[in-house]
């Protein structure tokens, strides 16, 4: 099942290799400014209502929809389900990371350090040690220790742009910089970030995900391409990118689907071709030959 938010609607796609995809639309509150979605283990779907400052929880089985206010001036962007089962949100309006308890609906805020008064928070991921890592598009990335409540933040090495973020199966954390035109690996101990340049300039890496084999998948918002790269080889001197061409004229990548592993593998197996770092299509970075 693939679920994504589009113009106030959550779309559910049941993908079966033997038949055409079945699409179901669920109308949610109009004007809420739906942004990101995250499916929970119980079948409900969390989503951010950016314009109205709430975290939504929708049950496709019953049709029940809940709106949980996040606080004054809230403007939530990203949401994921943490290892504790709670919803974790990048709450840009209050410049904090928010944790929402699924049972009590209690909202706990983890404000950023005063040195970063406005981060324009974007997305989240958890590392293998249980820390929540986040990005801020004004040029910030950081982490929250859920146990102690401590929040650390760092200036991004190339300034403005950190957007998507993901964790590989081996525990590496990577972010994509939309404005900075690169991806970067974060040292989860020191917080230092190592920049990896894309195969060409001006592609605008927006989101990044890791598959089960540690291959990073990146959306290039500026060129409409979907590149991927082997995380272990990404920082090598001669990285190779596998490029995937999207259909249509001047495609642009911007939305974030939330899909099952089966759907991801089928998408990954779609039409591909390999190109050098000078290629012009979507990309996956492979180990150097």
Give your account of this protein's structure.
The chain has 289 residues and is mostly beta strands. It has a single domain, classed as 7 Propeller (Methylamine Dehydrogenase, Chain H), CATH 2.130.10. Helices cover 3% and strands 43% of the residues. The protein has one helix and 25 strands. Residues 253-289 have low confidence and may be disordered.
Secondary-structure blueprint:
Blueprint: E1 2-6, E2 9-14, E3 22-27, E4 34-39, E5 45-49, E6 54-58, E7 65-69, E8 76-81, E9 87-91, E10 96-100, E11 107-111, E12 121-126, E13 132-136, E14 140-144, E15 151-155, E16 162-167, E17 173-177, E18 182-186, E19 193-196, E20 205-210, E21 215-220, E22 228-230, E23 240-243, H1 261-268, E24 273-274, E25 284-286
Antiparallel strand pairs: 1-2, 2-3, 4-5, 5-6, 6-7, 8-9, 9-10, 10-11, 12-13, 13-14, 14-15, 16-17, 17-18, 18-19, 20-21, 21-22, 23-24, 23-25
């Amino acid at each position: 099942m693939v679920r994504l938010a589009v113009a106030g609607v959550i779309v559910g796609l049941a993908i079966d290799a033997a038949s055409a995809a079945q699409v179901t639309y669920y109308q949610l509150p109009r004007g809420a400014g739906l942004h990101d979605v995250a499916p929970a283990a119980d079948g409900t779907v969390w989503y951010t209502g950016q314009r109205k400052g709430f975290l939504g929880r929708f049950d496709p089985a019953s049709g029940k929809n809940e709106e949980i206010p996040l606080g004054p001036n809230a403007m939530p962007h990203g949401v994921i389900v943490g290892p504790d089962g709670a919803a974790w949100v990048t709450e840009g309006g209050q410049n904090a990371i928010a944790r929402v308890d699924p049972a009590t609906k209690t909202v706990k805020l983890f404000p950023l350090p005063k040195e970063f008064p406005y981060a324009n928070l974007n997305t989240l991921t958890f590392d293998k040690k249980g820390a929540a890592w986040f990005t801020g598009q004004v040029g910030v990335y950081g982490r929250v220790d859920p146990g102690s409540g401590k929040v650390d933040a760092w200036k991004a090495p190339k300034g403005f742009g950190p957007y998507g973020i993901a964790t590989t199966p081996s525990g590496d954390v990577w972010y994509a910089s939309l404005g900075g035109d690169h991806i970067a690996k974060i040292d989860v101990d020191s917080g230092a970030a190592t920049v990896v340049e894309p195969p060409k300039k001006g592609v605008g890496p927006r989101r990044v995900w890791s598959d089960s084999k540690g291959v990073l998948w990146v959306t290039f918002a500026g060129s409409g391409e979907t590149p991927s790269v082997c995380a272990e080889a990404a920082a090598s001197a001669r990285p190779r990118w596998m490029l995937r061409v999207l259909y249509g004229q001047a495609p642009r990548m911007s939305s974030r689907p939330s899909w099952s592993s089966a759907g991801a593998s089928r998408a990954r197996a779609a039409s591909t071709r390999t190109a050098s770092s000078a290629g012009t299509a979507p990309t996956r970075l492979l180990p150097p030959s």
